[in-house]
Amino acid sequence: MATGGNAIRGTRVGSGPMGEQDHGYHADRIAISYWDGLGNETVRYFAAGLPEEEIPDIIDHPHSGLPAGRDKENPPAIAKPEPYKTHLAYVKERRTDEEAEQLLDDALQQLRERRGQR
């Protein structure tokens, strides 16, 4: 039969007597609510002595992935991602009308030449 050390099951070996005061549970804290663009609320806790300018106005909202602000009436706007564009779409945007007409004429000429060879 194997036996372990004298540590109580579920405790860290070598940890000394630590009370709640050592963890900071009794420190004065303030709760600040943040709302994202969908109306979801997140509450964050900050030290009571923290200056107002060090408390962020916008945070990342963990549930929706959208930013959340402290002002419930005017939350940050929902991010609108751009639609995916292929490389060809970007290339087509760069061409002028004259270049496009020239490319079309070249393609039509090549098709006519191939049809004439058969």
What does the model show?
With 118 residues, the chain is of the alpha+beta class. Helix content is 28%, strand content 18%. It is built from 3 helices and 4 strands, in the order H-E-E-E-E-H-H. A 4-stranded antiparallel beta sheet has the order 2-1-4-3, with no helix packed on it. Strand 1 and strand 2 form a beta hairpin. The longest helix has 21 residues. It is rod-shaped. The model has no long low-confidence stretch (mean pLDDT 78).
Structural topology:
Blueprint: H1 20-23, E1 29-36, E2 41-47, E3 58-60, E4 67-69, H2 87-94, H3 97-117
Antiparallel strand pairs: 1-2, 1-4, 3-4
Region (Disordered): 1-23, 56-84
Biased composition (Basic and acidic residues): 58-74
Family: Belongs to the RNA polymerase-binding protein RbpA family.
In short:
The protein is α+β, with helices and mostly antiparallel strands. It has helices at residues 20-23, 87-94, 97-117; strands spanning 29-36, 41-47, 58-60, 67-69.
